[in-house]
Amino acid sequence: MRLNFRALLSAAAKDQETAKKIVAEQAGFSSARDMTCRSYLKEDVHGFCALRLTQARVLALQAAYNERARAKAPTKPAGASQKETFGGPQR
What is the pLDDT along the chain (91 residues), one digit of tens a residue? Predict the structure, then answer.
């Protein structure tokens, strides 16, 4: 989770408002997880609820990073040829 968070934060480093939002979400995650899982029987022993929420957070961070990377990726020009798009002439 830490690696995904750092990657997302570095991708948003130039946009201070987005970076602040990401940091605030991550800071609030652990306390929200504790509040959600505190009523589960023997959660402090097995930690299943916390594990599942952490796994979901990892996927959410990864998806946010991928979305940001796709948004910043250069797109092909409208007139790109089939050769450039598919790697060569078709046989």
Answer: 888 888 888 888 788 888 888 889 888 998 999 999 999 999 988 999 999 999 999 999 999 989 988 887 776 655 555 555 445 555 4
pTM score of the predicted model: 0.66
As to burial, measured by CB atoms within 10 angstroms (0-12 exposed, 13-18 middle, 19+ buried), residue 91 is: exposed
* CA proximity to 52, closest of 36, 66, 41: 36
| Residue 21 in tokens | 């939002």
Rg for the chain, CA atoms, rounded: 20
The Cα–Cα gap between 16 and 27 comes to 16
